[in-house]
Design a protein that fits this description.
Strand content: 15-25%
Structural class: alpha/beta
Number of helices: 12
Distance between the termini: 40 Å
Helix content: 40-55%
Strand order of the largest sheet: 3-2-1-4-7-8
Number of strands: 14
Radius of gyration: 23 Å
């Protein structure tokens, strides 16, 4: 249970509704900042403006999946106001407070480090990232079906990157009967793709490999689909870029070439927000409860120190 814990949500999307419900079910005291336009009836919560006073009472601060941008702006699907997390707000948090997000950009990391506030990135955990790769891959397949006039079965597909999302996506495409190529950078990834029966290649050879592709899925956050590479991609092909903004594709040149290129970050929150929210809620609440248990044990040890034997 989270009884007595002060939890604040600053911004967020549909995934956060599941996290909010889980926190209230566990008896946390929940305050929402940047949710004034929400239509769902959320019981057991209060709403507030973004103020330093609110932050002084917070034990846990939960941010959107991408915590802030490079200037501190926080996105919220349920607010028309501009939310900016700055030094004054983070500095108002109690020293024991923790900040939770999916991915933290340098701005947020520096902000928390400057004030000695613990920052937890949920997507750095393998279990969360693997579970989250499932709705991401399903969303990518949905986009491919919606934006092509061919079946995935028998199509020539390329997945760039064999991380957790790339691995899940490549496996789904293979099971649907697509002809799958995977672009990798490391020998162990090359071996894994071969073991799966998928044709691997090194991304340094991408210029030669993109010829005759129908669908290209990118999971690499670096600028990998450059103008030079795009000159080799057929006009009929579609690019679905799953990397975080700004993606790894030269979208301007793709448009100039008449190639459809779609940036699709945060797919879990769009195609399966309830499932994605439950994944985050389960892990986040487990971490909070474990932290409370450790703190209680430490408090007990301080109150009742071991007496050395005589």
């Amino acid at each position: 249970m989270l009884t007595g814990l002060q939890v604040a949500f600053l911004g967020g999307d549909a995934r956060h509704l599941e996290i909010i419900r889980t926190c209230t079910d566990l008896d946390a005291t929940v305050v929402l900042i940047g949710f004034e336009c929400i239509h769902d009836q959320l019981k057991g919560v209060s709403h507030s403006k973004l103020t330093e006073e609110i932050f002084r009472k917070v034990d846990v601060l939960i941010l959107p999946v991408v915590g802030t941008d490079d200037h501190g702006s926080v996105e919220s699907s349920y607010s028309n106001e501009t939310l900016v997390l700055n030094e004054a707000y983070i500095g108002s948090l109690p020293q024991h407070a923790k900040v939770y997000t999916g991915i933290a950009k340098p701005y947020l990391k520096k902000l928390c480090a400057n004030h000695g506030i613990d920052l937890v990135e949920l997507f750095s955990r393998d279990d969360v990232a693997v579970y989250n790769s499932i709705p991401t891959a399903e969303g990518a397949l949905m986009m491919a079906i919606q934006n092509t006039d061919i079946t995935l079965h028998g199509s020539r597909c390329m997945v760039l990157g064999l991380g957790r999302t790339g691995l899940t996506l490549a496996g789904m495409l293979q099971r649907l009967g697509a002809q799958v190529k995977v672009g990798v950078q490391k020998p162990d990834q090359f071996a894994r793709a071969s073991e799966m029966g998928i044709q691997p290649f090194y991304t340094k050879d991408l210029y030669d490999e993109v010829v005759n592709m129908d669908i290209i899925f990118n999971t690499v956050p670096d600028h990998i689909l450059t103008a030079h590479v795009i000159t080799r991609i057929p006009h009929r092909a579609i690019i679905i870029d799953l990397a975080s903004k700004p993606g790894g594709t030269d979208f301007r040149f793709a448009e100039k070439r008449g190639i459809k290129a779609l940036l699709a970050p945060s797919l879990p929150g769009l195609v399966a927000p309830r499932t994605a929210g439950r994944i985050l809620a389960n892990t986040l609440c487990q971490l909070i409860q474990e932290e409370r248990s450790r703190n209680n044990e430490q408090d007990t040890e301080r109150m009742f120190p071991c007496i050395p034997a005589i």
